[in-house]
Amino acid sequence: MTEMPETSAGRPSAPLGPGDWPVRWIHGSPPGPGPRDPPVQVHRYDAKTFILRQSKDVSFEAPFLYLFFGHDRALLVDSGAIADPRRCPLRSTVDGLVRAWRSDHPRSEYPLVVAHTHGHGDHVAGDSQFADRPNTRVVGRDASAVREYFGLSDGPAAVATLDLGGRPIEVLAIPGHHPASIALYDRRTGLLLTGDTVCPGRLYVADMPAFRSSMARLVGFARTHPVSAVVGGHIEMTARPGIDYPIGARYQPHERILPMDPGRLDAILEGAHLAAKGPGVYVFPDFHIYHGPCTGPALWSIARGKVGNLRYRIVRGLHRVV
Ligand SMILES: [Zn+2]
Predict the structure, then answer these.
(1) Which residues sit opposite 231 in a β-bridge?
(2) 235 CB contacts (<8 Å, ≥6 apart)?
């Protein structure tokens, strides 16, 4: 599968040369005798930007993590779903990338900041791997710790800037999915990181009024900044419009691409206005909106996921025996 960014008409163009999108993401080891997925995939987007994905073999969440290098320090956005380094060696993977970068850009000191798009477990579980890492700041997970670290004021229009050294990262509070949700915008690449607030998947909305105003902010931001792609924390949609994988799926062979056109932000804002009329699941081609707990549809999806995973395990087991 070749992934290419979608194009965006009528918006500011991307600031610098485009990064590398044609990438085949790991999406669960094939149910045959072939090689297994690595626990974490590293994609070099450009010389100073890496996108990592954790394997579905170690967590069905298979979250995406982002690593940015500046002159003075590096930023890891999200630490993923796995605490145990034996199951997913995130720390050593990041250390290896930092070592390689520093060998080309010698520095006596090179701090690392570990921050999060939001505080859910599948985005913060790897923090413990960085707890004893020298020269490392792991930002807290709740809204007040996040606001304090980035210097975000309480106002809804507040934007803070984290400078990595010649590489400013703009930070916006976007509560609604989670109280501590933030978006991060990298001027260098034009990437807008949105965590689980905007991704090709199930957008779980815990606080609809906050979600709608956060989406309105993101739409306004993308109209005034050159956003090359909106990139989130997961892929949960198939390549077929409107069809998602079941919750818990361990194998996703025909995923939708990760990057979303900035125009999708308008579509999600419109969808949120529609979904505001009441709790339930609202289906759109590139995303679903889960307004409220949605217990029935979620349980049905989990059950479908379990059946699919059982089939997948049986096929894998048969191949192991053979
Ligand atoms: Zn998530």
Answers:
(1) 193
(2) 25, 27, 62, 199, 200, 201, 252, 255, 256, 257, 258
Q: How far is CA 292 from CA 27, 83, 244, in A?
A: 28, 28, 18
Taking the centre of ligand 1 as the mean of its atom positions, its distance from the CA of residue 225, in whole angstroms, is 26
Tell me, in angstroms, the distance from the centre of ligand 1 to residue 283's CA: 19
Q: Measure 80 CA to ligand 1 centroid, in angstroms.
A: 9
Which tops the pLDDT comparison, 210 or 7? 210
Structure tokens at 157: 């229009």
288 near 203, Cβ under 8 Å?
A: yes
What H or E segment, with its residue span, contains residue 182?
A: strand 182-186
CA of 61 to the centre of ligand 1 (A): 7
Nearest CA among 314, 199, 183 for reference residue 245: 199
Cβ–Cβ under 8 Å, residues 249 and 290: no
pLDDT for 172-221, tens place per residue? Answer: 999 999 999 999 999 999 999 999 999 999 999 999 999 999 999 999 99
Dihedral (CA of 88, 57, 204, 6) sign: positive
Distance 229 CA to ligand 1 centre (A): 19
* Domains of the chain in sequence order: 40-321 (3.60.15.10)
Q: How far apart are CA 114 and CA 136, in angstroms?
A: 7
pLDDT digits (tens, 9 = 90+) for 287-319: 999 998 888 888 898 988 888 888 888 877 766
Gyration radius of the chain's alpha carbons: 19
The two structure tokens encoding residue 310: 């059982």
What's CA 281's distance to the chain center, in Å?
Answer: 21
